[in-house]
Amino acid sequence: MFQMRIKDWLETIGMLAIVASLVFVGLQMKQDRSIATVDSYDGVASTDLQLAELIGDHSELWRRGLDGEELSVEEQIQFHVLAKAVESSFLISWRRALELDVYNPDSELRDYAMALHSHVGLRKYFEAKHSRYATTDAAFNESADYGAFGGAVRERLEYLVTNSVPVPETKAYVFWD
Fold it and tell me: Which member of 43, 47, 88, 163 has the lowest number of beta carbons within 10 Å of its beta carbon?
């Protein structure tokens, strides 16, 4: 009888230890997620600073490219590099929002689609890139794959065009946060 009571007490203590360790693991996971979220802001801030510097150093070219003005071959290359950097910023922010659930990732898709819709030159960049993807995929007898981000942006851009959403009268040459 005494051994049964000791066994019951030990089992109860063992179960309490398991519950306590699960609570500890849950709290640790929550803390790790919070740390990851905060750490991700460092990367975002660094990317934003680099992008600001890159665009700032080429602001006239950026404006002319977005407006769809005629660019020399060298300027086209530089504009595509700038456009890729901006697109990458949207992609990284979208992916971060998906992974960390810090805000609605669809806002990044909508913002980039609106930027494409609003700026002739940026849209030409985007369409040229997607045309290149389609050509490459067709060469390998594959259906066109624009990736999750690119495909979702295309859908939102098509929505803007199909619904004849007007282009804002005031141009924003910096349209990312």
Answer: 163
pLDDT digits (tens, 9 = 90+) for 32-82: 666 665 565 556 677 778 888 999 999 999 999 999 999 999 999 999 999
pTM: 0.77
Positive or negative: CA dihedral 87, 91, 92, 94:
positive
**Packed helices 106-118 and 73-100: angle between N→C axes, nearest 10 degrees:** 160
Per-residue model confidence (pLDDT) at position 44 = 63
Type of residue found at 53 = E
C-alpha torsion sign, points 129, 135, 150, 112: positive
What span, in angstroms and rounded, lies between the C-alpha atoms of 94 and 101?
10
Contact 62, 173 (CB under 8 A): yes
Per-residue confidence (pLDDT) for residue 165, from 0 to 100: 96
Please state the three-class secondary structure of the chain as a single string. Answer: CHHHHHHHHHHHHHHHHHHHHHHHHHHHHHHHHHHHHHHHHHHHHHHHHHHHHHHHHCHHHHHHHHCCCCCCHHHHHHHHHHHHHHHHHHHHHHHHHHHHCCCCCHHHHHHHHHHHHHCHHHHHHHHHHHHHHHHHHHHCCCCCCCHHHHHHHHHHHHHHHHCCCCCCCCCCCCCCC
Give pLDDT, residue 13.
Answer: 82
